[in-house]
Amino acid sequence: MDIRFQKNIDMEAETDSVFSVSVQTKPEQIKVKIGFLIRLYVSYPESIIAEAVAKQIGEMLVDPDCIDDIEQRCLYRQLEMHWRCLGWINSHCSTESSQTKIFDSQIVR
User: Fold this and answer.
1) How far is CA 72 from CA 56, 68, 90, 101, 103, in A?
2) Helix axes 3-14, 47-62, angle to 10 degrees
3) What are the residue ranges spanned by the domains of the chain?
4) Which of 34, 41, 54, 61 has its CA 20 to 30 A from that of 23?
5) DSSP 23
6) What band does 109 get if pLDDT is binned at 50, 70 and 90?
7) CA angle 104, 108, 109 (to 5 degrees)
8) Residue 43: count of CB within 10 angstroms of its CB
């Protein structure tokens, strides 16, 4: 990943930004943030982005007026866990080369 991008992510994570969660943020704003973060993750699959998506979804789940339908709440809960898992996977898989080694070792067998 580009060092400049990592530095920008670190700076953004520390300030009030798309990475932050606030009680005052409206559900419509949270949905916009989630969409932005998912598009960002497609280009830069980093754990900080996946974790931010999970936090934003969690913020929607906390607001009782945001999601009324129980089935929809369950789907959002599943999405939250999906993004938490992506964040965990990205933070525990060190590099692409190590993933390639695993893949190559499976082919050799």
Assistant:
1) 16, 8, 27, 40, 37
2) 30
3) 3-108
4) 41
5) T
6) very low
7) 120
8) 9
Contact assessment for residue 21 and residue 37, using Cβ atoms and an 8 Å cutoff: no
Each residue of 45-103: pLDDT tens digit? 999 999 999 999 999 898 877 888 899 999 999 999 999 999 999 888 855 544 444 44
Minimal CA–CA distance to 37: which of 25, 23, 51?
A: 51
The whole-angstrom separation of Cα 61 and Cα 24 is 14
Q: End-to-end CA distance of the chain, in Å? A: 31
Q: What residue has token string 């993933």?
A: 99
Residue 25 tokens, joined: 């943020």
Whole-Å CA distances, 67 to 37, 59, 84: 20, 11, 20
* DSSP at 64: T
- Cα 9 from Cα 2, distance rounded (Å): 11
How big is the CA angle at 14 (ends 84 and 41), to the nearest 5 degrees? 40
Query: pTM of whole model > 0.70?
Result: no
